[in-house]
Amino acid sequence: MSHGGLRGGTAVVGVAESDLGEVGAGRYSIELAAQAAVRALDDAGLGKNDVDGLFGVLSRHVLPSVDIGEYLGIRPRYTDSTMIGGSSFVSYLHHAAQALIAGACDVALIVYGSTSRSASRQGRASAPVVDGPNYERAYRPRGAMSGYALAAARHMYQYGTTREQLAEVAVAARAWARLNPVAFKRGPLTVEDVLARPMLSSPFTSLDCCLTTDGGGAAVMVRAERARDLRERPVYLLGAGEAHWHSSISQMPDLTVSATRDSAARAFTMAGLRPADIDVVELYDAFTINTIMFLEDLGFCAKGEGGAFVSDGRIAPGGELPVNTNGGGLSYCHPGMYGIFTIIEAVRQIRGEAGVRQQSDVHTAVAHGNGGQLSAQATVILGDQAAL
Questions:
Q1: 3-class DSSP state of 186
Q2: Is residue 135 over pLDDT 90?
Q3: Please, how many CA atoms are within 13 Å of residue 374, restricted to the half-sphere of its CB?
Q4: Residue 97 three-state SS
Q5: Cross-strand pairs, 86
Q6: What region does 73 belong to: left with phi over 0, alpha with psi -120 to 50, or beta?
Q7: In whole angstroms, what is the distance from residue 140 CA to residue 135 CA?
Q8: Span 49-69, mean pLDDT?
Q9: Cα 322 from Cα 357, distance rounded (Å)
C-alpha cells in the first residue's frame, strides 16, 4: 500500500440500487435512499447496526446525512454530506477510505435518493436555486443545459467535433441500456434519431440530454482486512482524486478542458496505473459532450480527438473500450445526481455480476463523477485482488 495506506487499504463490499424510473406518488427521496442502503448492506452481509460512518445526499434535504441517520436508526461516529453535485458520491469513496484508514469509522455507508421525476409530476419539486452570477442571468440560460451546450459548441468550433459524433455517445449508451433490464429507455436508437429530435439548446437535441428519473443508490466500504471475510468478493479502491476549478460556466478557464485532468492524474498516480490498464469506464454522462470531454481529460485519447474516438461503435457493446455499460445517465437513469451509479456499475463489472452486459476479464474500472456545470470532478480507480 502507498499514499498513506489508501491504495488497496479499503474495499467496496456492497452495492445496490433502489427502485428506479418513475416510482409514483407518495414516495420520497429518503425512502429510496433507505431502500438502496438496506439492499447494499444485505449485499455485503452486514446490517445497519454495523454502520458507523455515514456519507450521503438527498434531493431537497438540507441536512441529508442527519435525516438518513434518523430514518435508518444509524448513529454514526463519522459523517459527511459534502455537496459538490453529482460528483459527491465518487468523492465520498475517497473520503470514506481516508476515514476508514484513520480509524474514524469501521463500516462506511454511502447513499443517495431522489424522486425528481415523480415529484415534478406531482408538483412537489421545488424551483431550482439560481446561483449563477447576475451577468449570466441576463442571457436567460436554460439551466445546466445551456452551460454544457456552450462547452459542446466550443469543442465543435475548436476541434471540428460534429453533431453526429455527439449523437454516437447517445446511441452507444442506448445500446448498453438495451442490455440492462432496469434501464429507463431501452428502445432502439440511431444517430439519425438523435439529430431529428427537437433542438433544446444548440447543439443539443433532447436526446443529447440526460433522463429525469427517480432512483437511489448505495455503496458499503470497509478496510481491506475485513473485506476478505465478508460475503462478496472485495473491490479495492486503488486510486482517487478530486478537483474543481470553477463554479459558473462563464468562469471555466477553458470550455474544452475540465478539472478531470487533475482528478484523473491524482487517481492514476495513486493507483500506479495508466488509462491503457483500465478494462471498463463509467462516466457521468449528463450530456453527450461529457463523455467526449471526460475520455480526453482522463487520458483515453488526446484533447480534441474525443469525437473521433467515440465514433464507429468504439464505446458501444462489442467496441474497444466499454463505456457506461449500464446505459448511463442518457438511457439508464438520472435522478438529478448520477455519480453513485458509476460506482455501482463499476463494482458489478469487476465482480462479474452485470448479466448479459458483463465484460470478460474485468480487473480494473474507472468511476468518474461530475458536478455543477463541468465544475467539480472526482475520479476513482477500482480493482480486484489481481489488480493490487
A1: coil
A2: no
A3: 30
A4: helix
A5: 84
A6: left
A7: 10
A8: 92
A9: 10
| Chain centre distance of CA 370 | 7
Mean per-residue pLDDT over the chain, rounded: 94
Q: DSSP letter string over 341-384? A: HHHHHHHHHHHT--GGGPPTT--EEEEEEEETTTTEEEEEEEE-
Cα dihedral 19, 24, 25, 29, rounded to 10, equals: 30
312 located within any domain = yes
Total structural domains within the chain:
1
- Residue 160's CB is within 10 A of a number of other CB atoms, namely 11
Distance in angstroms (rounded) separating the CA atoms of residues 366 and 283: 8
CA distance 118 to 22: 6
CA distance 211 to 18: 17
Range of the domain at 103: 10-122+211-387
Residue 278 lies in a domain: yes
Residue 179: inside a domain: no
**Rounded CA separation 97/5 (Å):** 9
- Residue 367 counted as domain residue: yes
